[in-house]
Amino acid sequence: MIVVVGQPLFRATDQGGLAEGLGARVALAAARAGRSVQLVGRTGDDPEGDAVLLDLARGGVGHVAVLRVAGLATPCLTESIDADLSGPAGDADRAATALDTAVPVDAGPTLDAADVDLALRYLTDFSVLVLAVRGDEAIARVVAAAAGWADARLIVVLAASAAIPDNLPADAIVFEAPDADPDGVFADMVGAFAAALDNGDDPAVAFRSTVEAEGWTPSLDAP
After folding, report:
1. 58 C-beta neighbours (distance < 10 Å), count
2. C-alpha distances in Å from residue 179, one per residue of 28, 40, 54, 159, 161
3. Domains of the chain listed by start with CATH number
4. What pTM was computed for the model?
5. What count of other Cβ atoms lies within 10 Å of the Cβ of residue 203?
6. What angle do CA 182, 75, 42 make, to 5 degrees?
7. Which helix (H) or strand (E) segment is 98 a member of?
8. Fewer Cβ within 10 Å of end Cβ, the chain: N or C?
């Protein structure tokens, strides 16, 4: 089983609400690859949170470790007020540009280390653990410890140029996320890579097969 630690977000579309955010996208990609996946996160106990969980369930992602928080709003995505909509683009392209530059609203429930520790001790039976919460050293410590006692392969996603957290297992695999991933290409790659590891593939083989399947070309220096 794969466990992804990451805060799910809500995105409204014409077809209804979707689960968004790096953690949700990674989990959904791993589930599409046919693996058993659980997401650790928080939502509000509200219609947006209901929509997030329904979308995860439709995508084959378990959410028994997603905490519902009464009285708080599920974090949502909203169009960036800094989006550059100038130029010759038509109305449809302008709308797409605004959506692709979406940014998370600050308000709403967010993960903390105690939530993550409790969830991982509840799930226990996992072979791959993905940390998709960037910049929280306390959560990183909890996840690193859990990878140790579960004998699980750890994947850590860092923000661009971020320092690697201390105390990671020696065999932890670290990815640097791009500044933006509007089409979910990076998240899909991480999810497919996690699925290959869960399938028992060697990390180097899993990485090469994943990036090639996603249409990327590994450099000659890649492992």
Report:
1. 12
2. 20, 23, 28, 7, 10
3. 2-213 (3.40.1190.20)
4. 0.83
5. 15
6. 110
7. helix 91-100
8. C
